[in-house]
Amino acid sequence: MLCLMHEGQPYGHLTVQGRPITADSLARLVGESAAAVKRWMKELADNDVYSVSDDGLIFSRRMVRDEDLRERRAAGGQAGGEHGKKGGSHGAKGGRPKKEKTPDDASERGVEKPPLKPPPSSSTSTSSSSSIPPNPPQQYRSPPLSPEVEKLMEAGGFVSPPSLDLVAKWKAAGADFERDILPVIRAEARNLRERTGQAPRTLSVFDKAMMGKLAEDASEVQRLAKIERRLRRMDEQQLSEERHH
Fold first, then answer.
1. What average pLDDT score do residues 147-157 get?
2. Is the pTM for the entire model greater than 0.70?
3. Domain map of the chain by residue range?
4. H or E element: which one contains 220?
5. 120: cis peptide before it, omega within 30°?
6. pLDDT at position 196, please?
7. d(CA 131, CA 136)
8. pLDDT tens digits for 154-180?
């Protein structure tokens, strides 16, 4: 639920593509029965874990507070930017930078004091700054990439290996790596390069598209199930009429 709230609109609300997620829809997304999900949600509600808005949307109080704090800090950074670069960076933290004090002794003004410790020599700095030899032993070498990471990098055009945390979330929601995840990443990465001319950096840029596809797939499965039940009733009715005659 927290992962879905992270992508919800408004932020921190249990929605997908702006629509509320019901207990039945949530059950399909997490791969559990509707009865179990409703029982767990009632337990969360009884313990006041989540809140419900006036519109009936489930939301996380902590996530909504954090988002409000981020927005206010961003506004502070923009206002602080009027006082210069430092003002913008410190304004985003909720305050303005303090000015450096002028020395009380006029004779010290404009005088650069020597450092407390002499800088290391070139040979010393070279030996101390590099703890890994030019030909690193096995313990310093990067581990080989897993087949899934290699396929993700190829599909999305990643420069560095992405984290697999979101992949685990997508799989838990019912996505298949070859059938669902890779095609969505290829299509969305191509659209991103066409719009911005840049390659994606993290998998988070694909999360909304992936969750939207899973929601559409779940809706399609439900529609096909209704059609199947209707056809089965028609067949049973026809068979019953034939037996009657």
1. 88
2. no
3. 146-245
4. helix 207-244
5. no
6. 85
7. 10
8. 888 887 888 888 899 888 888 899 989
Looking at beta carbons, which pairs linking 54-60 to residues 24 or more positions away fall under 8 Å?
56/20, 57/13, 57/14, 57/15, 57/20, 58/1, 58/13, 58/14, 58/20, 58/21, 59/5, 59/8, 59/10, 59/12, 59/13, 59/14, 60/2, 60/5, 60/12
Torsion angles phi and psi, residue 220, rounded to 5: -70, -40
Strand ranges, E, within 21-111: 51-52, 58-59
What percent of the chain is modeled with pLDDT above 70? 73
Other beta carbons within 10 Å of 172 = 12
What is the spatial distance between Cα 13 and Cα 20, in angstroms, rounded to a whole number? 8
What is the tens place of the pLDDT at every residue in 94-111?
554 455 555 555 555 555
Amino acid, res. 87: G
